[in-house]
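Lab manual, section 2.4: Encoding a predicted structure.

Procedure: take the sequence of the chain (268 residues), apply the prediction step described in section 2.3, and record the output as C-alpha cells. A sample record is shown.
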Amino acid sequence: MTALDLQVVQPAGTARTTRDRLEILAALIHAPNFDPLFRSEIIDIPRDHPVYAWGCQVPRCERPRRTSLHLCADHHEQWKQQRAAESSKGNFLASAHPLPASQGIDRGWCLVCPERPVFSVRLQLCYTHMYRWLYTSGTTLSENDPSVTTTNPFQAWIRDQGPLPGAGPCRVAVCPETAACPMGLCVGHRARYKQQGNPGGVAVRRRQRSAGCAVAEVVDEVAFRKWCQSEEPIRRTGQLNLIGLRPLVKAEIQWGLFAHAHPAEGPE
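Recorded output:
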C-alpha cells in the first residue's frame, strides 16, 4: 500500500467566521472614537496611564511597579522597613529618592549621528564613533567613564566628527529597533545573539581602525536568517510589541486593551 498525505480540512465556516470577525474588529479599531494609543503594532503605554500604569508610585522613579504594590522592587523593600517602623505611606513617598531605569530602557541616539542608536552608554556614541574615539584616544572602553564626555579633548573630537547615515532596521523580524552594529542587529539582539552562541557564525571584522570601519562576515547565512526569524523582541518597559502576530490575534488584543480602558465605549 502507498501512504498518502492527508490534508487537514478546517471545519466548515471557520475561515469565514475568522474573516468576518477580523473585518468587524478592523472597523472598530479604525473608528474615530478608538484610542489611537492602541492602534499601532508597537504600543507604548504611558508611565501613569489611568488604567495600565506601570511606573513606580514614587515621584520621578523610572522603574516599573510590582502589580499589586504600586512600587518598584527596591522601593517596596524600603517601604517594608519604614512600615515596620510605623511610618505612613505618604511620608515614605515624599521622602523616597527616585531611581533610574535599570532594564528595558531606550539608550537614545549617538551624540554625532541622529540616526544611529547609542552603542556605548558610557560614551553616548554609536558603534562606529565609539571605535573611532577609542582609537584616537588610545584607550579601552573600560578606561572611559561617563565623565569623559565632558572633557575638552572629547568635546573637541566630537566637533570634528561627521554624522553617519542610519544602518536600517534590526534584522530580527519582530524587532522595531534600529540596527546598531555591522551585523545588522540592535544592541539588545546583538547581546542576545552572542549569549546564544552566534548561530550562523556572524563575526565583525574591523578594517581601517582609525576610521572605525567594520564589516560583518557570515559563515552560515541560512542559520543566521533562521535565528533572526525566530528570535523574540527585546523587552522594553511599558511597551507592547504586536509585530508578527496573526491579524485576528493582533486585532483582538488591540480591541481588548481599548475596551478594558474605555468600558463605556465597548459593547454592551
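Check your result against the sample. The beta strands are 42-44, 203-207, 213-217, 239-241.
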